Amino acid sequence: MIRRLLTAMLLAAVATAPARSQLQAPDVTIRTEKVAEGVYALFGNGGNIGASVGEDGVFILDDQFAPLTPAINAALAALSPAPVRFVLNTHWHFDHTGGNENYGKAGALIVAHDNVRARMSVPQAMEFFQQVVPASPPAALPVVTFNDAVSLHFNGDEVRAVHVGRAHTDGDAIIQFRKANVIHAGDVFFNGMYPFIDLGSGGSIAGTLAAVDTMLAMSDATTRIIPGHGPVAGRAELEDYRRMLTDTVTRVRTLKSGGKSVDEIVAATPNADYDATWANSFINGERYVRMLYALMERE
To answer: Domains in the chain: how many in total?
Structure first.
């Protein structure tokens, strides 16, 4: 179900990207899952939302699409009557930042890496989709930006955002709730499915692997991980993801180094065993190989 929602959301949204602020609210139910004491994951249509709820109020990580803000607020109201005080974006993609304008106008302080604000401020070419995403309105832009890391001391926890370089994009932040032992991975981690690495936004294979290693170093057997897409995971699922990335990248790189063209590599189906469980209608086996090949061409 999550894979179908992800596919429909991304393909439909990208196809209508120039009019994203005018998207009609879909019939989406926001599902809430308690991840740790005071920490929740919200699933709807777009990137997974993290939420800290407690005596200091409500703080969210990402906010999906603008038309979903009322449904997101309703789900949050079931946890706390307090308004959202802070929004921290894991990266710039509009299925994670689409609600920024609404929350910014409502008084929330938006926080993100420097590159998130830089990219949202001007039109962005998403090469993978052959689409141009327009600049975000001023109210949607992060007000507080950081370079390497920033901490928010909120609801009795230290929430640490760490920039991980050129991974899914060039502005990814991994968010760690140190006391609760929860990580929000953003789109550095697609749980149970092939990832999208955004070449046009500075993404890279090496950076993605390094970011996963950073999360593994942050985690232990009891850590709960909210991925950018897919169900809440633990360290074991992140290790499976790391293994899949390593194997599939190695296979494609070996064929490419042997002089095979991208079409020849696609025809060889080098990742057929992984395709059976990791491929989906958004990133199927062929699109995954072509994405990896394109990334390797830019290394």
So the answer is: 1
Report how far residue 209's alpha carbon sits from residue 249's, in angstroms, rounded to the nearest whole number: 10
Contact indicator for 64, 96 with CB cutoff of 8 Å = yes
Q: Is residue 291 part of a domain?
A: no
* pLDDT digit string, tens, across residues 246-283: 999 999 999 999 999 999 999 999 999 999 999 998 89
Residues 30 and 41: beta-carbon distance below 8 Å = no
Place of tokens 């009609």: 24
Which pTM was predicted? 0.92
Residues 224, 184: Cα–Cα separation, whole Å: 9
**CATH number of the structural domain spanning residue 129:** 3.60.15.10
Provide the CA 109 distance to its chain's centre, in angstroms: 20
| Residue 16 domain boundaries | 2-235
Residue 244 lies in a domain: no
Report if residue 278 sits inside a domain: no
Give phi and psi for 39, each to the nearest 5: -125, 130
Residue type at 262 in one-letter notation: V
Give the pairing of strands 109-113 and 144-146: parallel
